[in-house]
Amino acid sequence: MAVVNVTELLVQSALKDAYIGKGRLTCDCARCVEDIKAIALNHLPPHYVSTDQGVAYVKAQYIDPQLQSDVLRELAFAAQTVSSSPRHIEGS
Amino acid sequence: MAVVNVTELLVQSALKDAYIGKGRLTCDCARCVEDIKAIALNHLPPHYVSTDQGVAYVKAQYIDPQLQSDVLRELAFAAQTVSSSPRHIEGS
């Protein structure tokens, strides 16, 4: 049994589906992707659940439009922030 | 490279050192411990970092008295909440 932050799952899948999968990131190196995730997650409320109740709760969260639109809003901000000042080493 | 919520690390070690290690929980079954963690984490600001910068940042966090006292305050509230209405099955 462990605790899981549902918001982290939503950010992960939205980043994959709406950005990486569509080639919408200026740079998708591991450093930039993790920095985008960290910035977005630090601007979103945590939703920790303990795993036995996780599956049902996670499903309910995935269809919660408000949290999803919050996640997309914060991802857009984070992607813009990282794109304008990436921490990766150029050409790496 | 992955993102880590520093607050989760602090809650984990404070729960172990200040509660479980000192026998201060009414019940320390996995269900109660995870519920206490989830409740505490949902009342604390996330501090996500990407792991390459994690070690140094995590150390700085561990000696940040304000976040530590916030963690202890929320753990006390969460332990009280779970102790008064545990979700485990009695005698399990």
SSE order and pairing:
Two copies of one chain form a homodimer.
Chain A: E1 3-5, H1 6-19, H2 30-41, E2 48-50, H3 51-62, H4 65-84
Antiparallel strand pairs in A: 1-2
Helix pairs in contact in A: 1-2, 1-4, 2-4
Report on the architecture of this protein.
The first copy, chain A, has 92 residues and is mainly α. Chain A has one domain. Chain A has four helices and two strands. In chain A, strands 1-2 form a two-stranded antiparallel ribbon. The longest helix of chain A has 20 residues, at 65-84. The radius of gyration of chain A is 14 Å and the shape is elongated. The interface between A and B is medium-sized, with 22 and 22 residues.
DSSP helix count of chain A? Answer: 4
The assembly state of the depicted protein chains is homodimer
State the strand order across the main sheet of chain A.
Answer: 1-2
Which spans of chain A have pLDDT < 50 for at least 5 consecutive residues?
Answer: none
In angstroms, what separates the terminal alpha carbons of chain A? 39 Å
Class of secondary structure makeup of chain A? mainly alpha
- Largest two-chain interface: A-B, 22 and 22 residues
The average pLDDT value of chain A, as a whole number, equals 87
- The fraction of residues in strands of chain A falls at 5-15%
- The total tally of domains of chain A equals 1
Give a count of the beta strands of chain A, DSSP E runs of length 2 or more.
Answer: 2
Shape of chain A: elongated
Percent helix of chain A: 55-70%
Rg of chain A, rounded, reads 14 Å
Q: Secondary-structure element order of chain A, as H and E? A: EHHEHH
